[in-house]
Amino acid sequence: MNAGRSRNPRSRRSGVVAAVAGAVVLTTLTAPPAQAAPTGLVVSKVVVNNGKPIVVGTKEEKEPPVTFQVSLPPGLSTSKPSAYTAKPFLYRGAKLPKIPDNDSLRMGMYTCYPVNDWNERCEGTLFIDPPYDLDSNGDATTWKVGLTLRLWKPDGRLKAEEYKKAPGSVQLKRWGKATVNASPEPVKKGKKLTVTGKLTRADWVKHTYTGVAGSAKLQFRKKGSSAYTTVKTVKSNSAGALKTTVTASVDGYWRWTHNGSSTTGPATSSADFIDVR
Q1: What does pTM read for this prediction?
Q2: Is the dihedral of CA 217, 218, 222, 223 positive or negative?
Q3: What is the reported pLDDT for 33?
Q4: In b/e form, how buried is each residue of 3-16, taking b as 16+ CB within 10 angstroms?
Q5: Who's near 57: CB < 8 A, 6+ residues apart?
Q6: Which helix (DSSP H) or strand (DSSP E) does residue 167 occupy?
Q7: pLDDT over threshold 60, residue 81
Q8: For residue 275, with 0-12 CB atoms within 10 Å meaning exposed, 13-18 middle and 19 or more buried, which class applies?
Q9: CA 244, 249, 251, 252 torsion-angle sign
């Protein structure tokens, strides 16, 4: 049932375990599974995380924003929100999971506001707990969008339920990190400066950050300036280690930046200041 929704028809809330996504717009729906009774509910204009991919670490909970709209069939009214629930979820693979609540990424808390008697606009957040929701690095992939639609009887019992596929897809990525160290400190002008670092990304199996091979840009910002310039591009080894040498000329800040990939989010290290004498 619409657990957690208030009785105020202009502000209703429902709490469930989380979903994640990039941006998705749902405009039409496929036919419901044959075993499910149709509800007549239509969900559209779903936008998650303001149109950006979701990048998840190993332990930090994520709550990206989500918005969508619900249109009601004849016989239902937004003045009686306890009569229905509608929400998107994400799943992997070609088929909808048999039990989406146990095999998908789902909506968290949300509030719905009636536009008129037959339509409402919903907004809220998603909730992702990496150790609980993600147990494979293969989860960093494209997820498909589904819908859970339910009608409820006045006594709170389920009246009708259906799960539908919806257009669109979502990319889930592993959080990336970068470190930097420049030496010696201080350094004489014209001498060689060695800049090292490491690229790592979230490992959802080990629940820690492990090295990743990839390209990183070495960037420099002169003391007193606000802009970084790229000095060179360096490839890390299989363990994620970065290393290169440059000629010291003026005081300034050094950092590594990584653009990420289809499975890994971007990463930029903190800056290491070098005093050139």
Answers
A1: 0.82
A2: positive
A3: 38
A4: eebeeebeebbbeb
A5: 130, 175, 202
A6: strand 158-174
A7: yes
A8: exposed
A9: negative
Which residues have a Cβ under 8 Å from the Cβ of 8 and sit 6 or more positions away? none
97 burial type by CB count under 10 A (0-12 exposed, 13-18 middle, 19+ buried): middle
Query: Strand pairing partners for 247?
Result: 192
Q: Which two tokens stand for residue 53?
A: 């991919």
Q: Measure the CA–CA gap between 274 and 159, rounded to whole angstroms.
A: 68
Tokens 């290290």: give the residue.
269
DSSP 8-state code for residue 101:
T
Q: What's the rounded Cα separation, in Å, for the pair 57 and 176?
A: 8
Sign of CA dihedral 259, 201, 18, 32: positive
Please state, in angstroms and rounded to a whole number, the distance separating the CA atoms of residues 60 and 112.
27
Cβ–Cβ < 8 Å for 26, 133: no
Task: Tell me the C-alpha distance between 255 and 178, whole Å.
Answer: 9
